[in-house]
Amino acid sequence: MIPSIAPVPATAPANAENADKETDTDAAGVGAGAGAATAAAPAATGTGRGPRAAFGGLFAPRMSSRRLFASPGAAAGIIWLAALVAASLTAPWWLPYKTEDQDFTAILSGPTAAHWLGTDELGRDLLSRIFAAAAGTLGTSLITVIVGVGLGTILAMVAAAGERTEGVISRVTEVMMSLPGTVIILAVIGAVGTNIPVIMAILGVLISAGIYRVMLGQATSLQSQLYVDAAKVDGVSTLAISLRHVLPGLSNTIVVQSALIFAVGMLIQAGLAFIGFGPPIPQPSWGGMIQGASQHVYDAPWLMVPTGAVLALTVLAANAIGNALGKAPNAAASHLPSAADRRRRTAASASAAASASAAAPETPAAPGRLSVRGLSVGVDGGTPLVTDVSFDVEQGTVLGLVGESGCGKTMTALSLLGLLPSGVSVTGGQILWDGRNLAGATETAMAGVRGRGIALISQEPMRALDPMFTVGYQLVSAIRRLRKTGKAQARAEALSLLEKVGIVDAGRILTTYPHQISGGMAQRVAIALALAGRPRLLVADEPTTALDVTVQAEILSLLRTLVKDTGMSVVMVTHDLGVVADICDTVAVMYAGQVVESGRTANILDNPRHPYTLALLAADPHANTAADMPERLATISGQVPQPKDWPAGCRFMARCQFAGSACVAPVPLVPSGSDDGVVRCVKADELAVEGLEWVATEVPARRVPDVRSADSTVSTSSAVEKDRA
Amino acid sequence: MAIYVAKRLLMALATVLVVAVLAFLLVHAMPGSPGAVSLGAGASQEAIDEVNNRLGWSDPLPVQFFGWLGSAAQGDFGVSLIDGRSVSADLANRLPVTAALAAGATLLSAVLGIALGVTAAVRGGLVDRIVGAVCGLAVALPAFWIGIIFVYLFAVQSSVFPATGYVPFEVSPQDWALSLALPVITLAVGGAAFIARQTRASMLEALQQEHIRTLRATATPTWKILYVHALRYASLPIVAGIALQFIGLFGGSVIAEQLFAMPGLGQAVQTSVSTHDAPSVQGVVVVATVVVVAVNLVLELATKFLDPKLRAS
Amino acid sequence: MSIETAVWQDGTAQAPGQPLLEVVDLVVRYGRGRKAAAAPAAVDGVSFSIRPGETVGLVGESGSGKSTIGKAILGLQKSSGGSVRYDGTDITHAGPARRRELGGELRAVFQDPNSSLNPRQTIGASLAEPLRTRGVAAREARQRAEDMLARVGLPREAVDRYPGQFSGGQRQRIAVARALICEPKLVVCDEAVSALDLSTQAQVLNLLADLRDERGLSYLFIAHDISVVQFLAQRVVVLYRGQVMESGPAASVTESPRHPFTQALVAASPVPRPAEQAERRQKREALGVRTASAATAAPGGCPFSQRCPLATDLCRSERPALRTVGASDVACHYV
Questions:
Q1: Residues 159-178 of A with CB under 8 A from C
Q2: ipTM of model
Q3: Which of A89, A448, B266, C24 is 20 to 30 Å from the Cα of C184, by its Cα?
Q4: Partners of C325 in the β-ladder
């Protein structure tokens, strides 16, 4: 190809912000296995052991090398490059012929025993010439890499550190990027002759502008990380921050871009040599050799192959390495499964449905009732995320799914719509709605239910709306599609829906883009969008978590009104017990993929039966007024267990204050004694009878308040809970 | 909006000026004075000096530069030192060739590349891997190598396309198209691969956005999600990629023109650099920059128009 | 600002002394140029003070300027007017050298446990950084890092591990450890527990309370959740669109708020008791606070006038001054 001077970022530039987060997830695997220690930490780093510690993070060998060797292409590439470098450096010792040795007996011959790769028009051995040219080519391409990536990185770091300098540098590099690179290079050649190292260095300068752009986004996002703020508060100098906190974060991109620019450099060099601007004769060059070969393409076509192949393989190797390390967009994170994924999913859900339909539904489906029975959701290929969840939602009521992060409430909610992320699917159980089991339904069947039967609103309203289209377009097209009306009528409907959700200036809002309205208003729009198909069930995934508390109160009021007016039911996923108390008629408390308690809200919150619910209420500052605010809040020691660590028995046992020997056996849901409530605890009755409380374990002894004296006497005897990390 | 356009125009003008200065300096660093170049080896020193004085070679550099700039602004780039012909006339003849080549290659790259990239992103699985491997190979093979192979296959083995040479549009539109076919296809191989990669990455990123889930939740048909919403979201980086492609192609057509004997700007650069023909080098560099900057400006404005966030402000 | 005695939660009083931190009429405007000057300020004339050993809560919704104030105090954001005095000296425009000195006494805990620790540095390196910057030797820094980890309830071996190997709550505790490793006098907690689950939030709040009692620290506790602030703070300052609406002892501001905005804020916080919550909801609806609109209020008036049920033309044209009403200071014409 004619490589462009400007390098290609592996992903769209806008994605640079995610770059750092991705690294964290790679290193951390926060979602799945924070407790699992990744392979041994590099031995070099310690605490403050001078430059090694500072730069120990620079190479983060664990992540990159693993990714590198995982890709067969990259591994092959490394081997090829290593071999090529080794061969070219040792060339003088093993080359069978000198580059200028002409053998007139074998001109334009194909591969023979004497000449493994054949000879050219002057009888010179191709193998020798190729490897003789290799060292120069590799070396000078390296110059381009060092100059281009080095300069670009330095400029990006400087620009990221200061707003004013950024403006200047960005302007200058913009000019550089709009130059016709090859033309400029040729003009330079006119001035300095074919001094290849200098040419490649100047090429590097031209390329650095593109590198700068790629790096700038990342460097800026790294500069805005909170740990940089913390370093600034510490008083660390700007330079030290750039070197210690920003540069290591760029290391992966540096390596990727280096590989890609290396390839570009080689191709440009070959191209220049092809048109006669290669190294001065008699030095061989790959481009020059291909030039010679092109003269004989009619009578000796084989001549084209060896040099071309070596050049292509080297470029391929560099590209493979670059691509393996680069953060190529992960197809698995897509919200729309690709055709291949969809085929796989249909097969999987068909088998899940087959096993689930074997169990007859326990309750006959009442109109408008959602019945979930024994629902299990898991990652394809093993790890469960939700096990055996059951609940009912009657028409016109609100069910709360409450729990902390990682309890599986969101996955449960998404499975109701068949919108589980790629790689996650329903592994068992039934979702009974409208006389059908949605758990094993095909995508087509679900498409019929979504919007018209069951609708969705999510946590971040600004992200839930398409930024490229107006609010009006999104609303009107949804109404047209779901209610099969014409355009004018759909627009009228859209206006009325917006008014219904409390937007006063409906006409103007229809013409705005999502980024022009506030978060609260965007959530109202999202609710209007969800109502477009007149659904009978609304799944609300933490709809108010990202909103201010006064706005939250308004949205909750809105939802209550809608439930009352339309008879819609709601499944409200939340972590806030106050929200549950406000709007939910029934609630299911989830912990580690299970429902631990469910029933009427008043019963659950006023008289919790499960120790976890008890603990949550004790830890909640909202549960107290100022007058009776405790000295210390009650806490739950330990952490939520990861799915792979779920015990067979009670999953809360390790952290429970009331745990006993009976808790190691699997615990079923039993009636809790109040209305239709159920609870998953062997001690529930005991707790109810004895009226136990979740105790705050970190209450300090009386402390001395005279803190203005220089040496404050501290007489705390608080037993600080050691975490079982 | 008007202020934005004005600012970009100013930047474009500044770019051209910077390049003009750069070209001027480079040309003066070239070995050989104009007299020596035009009269060749063996000319007497007096003759050389006479030519140099006539051309103002010993005048201070700023004087020479502004003199040249003045003429250039009126379209006069001087005469070639080698054959005495008007540089601007020559470039005017050559520009359409390179423009057709670059535009054609960019267009073909864009169409092919977007189609391939979208397919790879949408179908996933084996198709994705095959497209990825093909693109990887296309990017690794140098264009001139591919070009030679094409010449061999299409012009030598079968006479579908002419191997070399260019036929102007006025002479015969049909032959014009045929003469451009092989060079354009050659350049488009690498270009399509590049754009396919960019498209695939942008589409996948678009599909990771949360609003895609909202679209699914409102029962939007899959084709609409892909080709209306996701593509629209991905259009910004794709257009940026196409712009980069054009810049690269315009400059890089040098090699294609050499290979296919096309009388375009690239050929002009090459000959004038080899022969140290100062006015030609200067002229070509500036003209090439002007074209590239102009196209870049148009594409930038298109991007700004496409992005609602920028359009509204 | 009225002088009042700080009251510890166990009832013992503390005599007033010289404030450790004094913010006087702080103004912060974002951006440069004429357009920025015309836009409303992010922080518009805010004053409050913190005494040694005192915790002051800064409460507000998004756009209230509370985080900006924290950043301005720490020197992460340039202020456009007013002053910040620490221990008597003016630090509003302190240069890098002065900031480095201050960095040992004036420290911070930030909100996001995912980005508050450098994922490529070991915990030990992150903890030691503030010490090493101040010239502490490597070995001693490591020792102190280990001690601090133990104090916040994490194993000493954690010094050699990476942030990615810990949960959000644990990382936040490490962030607290980093803040306290230099023996500071004032710690700015910028939404330090907002991103945590309920049970982890409780752990970190307890930890902050323990450390405060142990070491006599002052906190500037910035949060959007008034109940959380109530747990830790003796005094609360309520902000709306960059201005102080009400400030006073935590108990009176949260139990008997005077300003309409504070009332709305308190009323809107749901409690996990259904019957009580139903009552609160009715009272809140009776308050009659209007929805926030995107349009900004005309400059010069009370920023809350657009939504306030008591608003009159006076409110829209004249900014109310802070007056003492009962135990708190309130900025309202009609209270």
A1: none
A2: 0.90
A3: C24
A4: C328
Tell me the torsion sign for CA atoms C228, C233, C238, C241. Answer: negative
Instruction: For strands C186-190 and C106-109, give the pairing.
Output: parallel
- Chain A residues with CB under 8 Å of C178 CB are 230
Predicted local confidence at residue A101, as pLDDT: 77
Mention the CATH class of domain A65-104+114-325: mainly alpha
Residue ranges for chain A with pLDDT beneath 70: 1-69, 327-332, 338, 340-341, 344-346, 348-365, 626, 697-725
Three-point CA angle A605, A609, A614, nearest 5°: 60
**Structure-block tokens of residue A309:** 């192949």
Instruction: Kindly state whether A172 is in contact with chain B, defined as any CB-CB distance less than 8 angstroms.
Output: no
C interface mutation test: which of A222, A226, A513 has the most C CBs within 10 A? A226
CA distance C212 to C235: 15
CB distance A255 to A53 below 8 Å: no
Residues in chain A with CB shorter than 8 Å from the CB of C155 are 722-723, 725
Give the pLDDT confidence score for residue C295 in this predicted structure: 62
User: Could you give the CA distance from residue B94 to residue B80 in angstroms, rounded to a whole number?
Assistant: 15
> What number of other Cβ atoms are within 10 A of residue A485's Cβ?
15
CA distances A377 to A331, A340, A412, A423, A639, Å, are: 21, 21, 7, 11, 22
| Residue C10 three-state SS | coil
Contact predicate A565/A554, CB 8 Å: no
How is residue A153 written in tokens?
């990185």
DSSP B39-105: H-TT--HHHHHHHHHHTTTTS-HHHHHHHHHHHHHTT---B-TTT--BHHHHHHHHHHHHHHHHHHH
Distance (Å) from the alpha carbon of C303 to chain A's nearest alpha carbon: 16
Q: What is the pLDDT of residues A672-722, one digit of tens each?
A: 877 888 999 888 887 777 777 787 765 444 333 333 333 333 333 333 333
Burial of residue B276 (CB within 10 Å: 0-12, 13-18, 19+) is: buried
Distance of CA A673 to the CA centre of its chain: 44
| Cβ-count burial B131-159 (b if 16+ within 10 Å, e if not) | bbebbbebbbbbbbbbbbbbbbebbeeee
| Maximal C-alpha separation, chain B | 86
Share of chain B above pLDDT 90, in %: 25
Is the CB of residue A465 less than 8 Å away from at least one CB of chain B? Answer: yes
Overall average pLDDT of the B211-234 stretch: 93
Q: How far is CA A244 from the centre of its chain?
A: 24
Give the residue from C56, C42, C49 showing the smallest Cα distance to C84: C49
Check CB contact under 8 Å for B229 and A468. yes
pLDDT along chain C (335 residues), means of 10: 40 61 93 77 92 94 92 92 91 87 91 90 92 90 94 91 91 94 93 90 92 92 92 94 94 91 93 92 88 68 88 88 91 88
Within 8 A of C158 by CB-CB distance, chain A residues are 725
Q: Which of A36, A578, A626 shows the shortest C-beta gap to C255?
A: A626
C-alpha span between A129 and A100 (Å, rounded): 8
CA distance C323 to chain A (A): 24
Quickly count: other Cβ atoms within 10 Å of residue C39's Cβ.
13
DSSP A518: -
Predicted TM-score (pTM) of the model is 0.85
Chains B and A touch each other (3 or more Cβ pairs < 8 A)? yes
CATH 1.10.3720.10 domain locations along chain A: 65-104+114-325
How many angstroms separate the CA of residue A656 from the nearest CA in chain C?
13
A354: its two tokens: 């087959």
Strand-strand pairing, C186-190 and C218-223: parallel
pLDDT at site B69 = 85
